[in-house]
Write a structure and sequence with these properties.
There is one protein chain. This protein is an alpha+beta fold and 296 residues long. The chain has 2 domains: 33-200, no CATH class; 206-280, OB fold (Dihydrolipoamide Acetyltransferase, E2P). It contains 7 helices and 6 strands. The chain has a 6-stranded antiparallel beta sheet with strand order 1-4-3-2-5-6. Helix 2 packs antiparallel against helix 4 (85-113) and helix 4 (85-113) packs antiparallel against helix 5 (116-145). The longest helix has 42 residues, at 164-205. The radius of gyration is 25 Å and the shape is elongated. The two termini are 36 Å apart. The chain crosses the membrane at residues 47-73, 85-106, 118-143, 166-185. Keywords: Membrane, Transmembrane, Transmembrane helix.
Length: 296
């Protein structure tokens, strides 16, 4: 392994250490938001080139199934070209590249906004948007190349072969999927940014207290491979004990034990944030398979 590859692997491992476990006193699941120390509040602008690239790759990849299998090719010659073995092999390679590009969009969105919900919407928009554009272009090309051809959705049920109408319906399904993701994305980005702004403000202006993890309750649910917990943190303010509850998402090998040191950040607005105090040698659950998702 090269030095660069080793450095990248170590960097990825360090990011994993920094981000897990993740706590939130307000949100749970994919809405839980992270802001790494020293990072700025996320922006969508750096993601747009990656999003457009991934969508374009999905559009190119989708031309083969939409044109050759679902009949949206404008002419028989183009349909044969799209169904040629060489074209299919190229589409398979493009599919692999498109998947990798979409994974890149997802990881960069997580890096920007610290939230898997926003990242999932960006990835969905890349896939569904690219395939919808592909289907729309081929359908428009087909209809303009032969204006006399009837377009009847009943052909889906009556045609002895796969009709172009079926391809149009599948394309419309992807378009609807992309539209839903696009409509949800602005609100999700705004939510993630608000959470990051709160965390940034608390770190600069909030009151910081040393706390102790007093309860770790497994909810018997996972987000992907990450188990979800309810936790309670106790701390002292002006000599009086207080407690705060939070959601925790982590990896199966980084479940902090009761008694771990925590940092509690609060302000006069009632906003709060908790973080694991890694500077005190946190102990994690030794049984790394205890909270791993079951295969069944």
């Amino acid at each position: 392994m090269s030095d660069a590859a080793e450095g990248q692997q170590k960097h990825g491992q360090q990011e994993h250490i920094e981000t897990m476990p993740l706590f939130s006193t307000t949100d749970k699941g994919g809405r839980m938001t992270l802001l790494r120390p020293g990072r700025r509040v996320g922006s969508a602008t750096p993601l747009l080139p990656w999003l457009l690239t991934a969508a374009a790759l999905w559009a190119l990849t989708g031309s083969v199934p939409f044109g050759a299998l679902l009949g949206l090719a404008p002419t028989p010659a183009i349909s044969m070209l799209l169904g040629h073995p060489v074209t299919v092999c190229v589409a398979v390679v493009l599919l692999y590249i498109a998947i990798s590009a979409t994974a890149g969009v997802y990881s960069r969105a997580v890096e920007q906004f610290g939230q898997t919900r926003v990242a999932g919407l960006f990835a969905t928009l890349a896939v569904a948007g690219g395939l919808a554009v592909c289907a729309g272009v081929l359908l428009l090309w087909m209809l303009t190349s032969d204006p006399s051809r009837p377009f009847d959705l009943e052909a889906i049920a009556t045609s002895p072969t796969i009709p172009p109408e079926l391809g149009a319906v599948v394309g419309a399904g992807f378009a609807l999927w992309a539209a839903i993701a696009l409509l949800r994305l602005p609100g999700s980005i705004a939510h993630a940014r608000r959470r990051q702004v709160d965390i940034e403000r608390l770190r600069v202006e909030g009151s910081s207290f040393t706390g102790t993890l007093t309860a770790v309750i497994f909810t018997n649910s996972w987000l992907g491979n990450s188990p979800i917990f309810r936790v309670e943190v106790s701390y002292i303010v002006d000599g009086a004990p207080r407690a705060i509850s939070a959601h925790m998402r982590t990896s199966a090998d980084r479940v902090p034990l009761v008694g771990s040191r925590m940092l509690v950040l609060t302000d006069d607005r009632g906003t709060s944030h908790v973080e694991l105090d890694l500077s005190n040698g946190t102990a994690f659950e030794p049984d790394t398979g205890k909270y791993a998702p079951s295969d069944g």
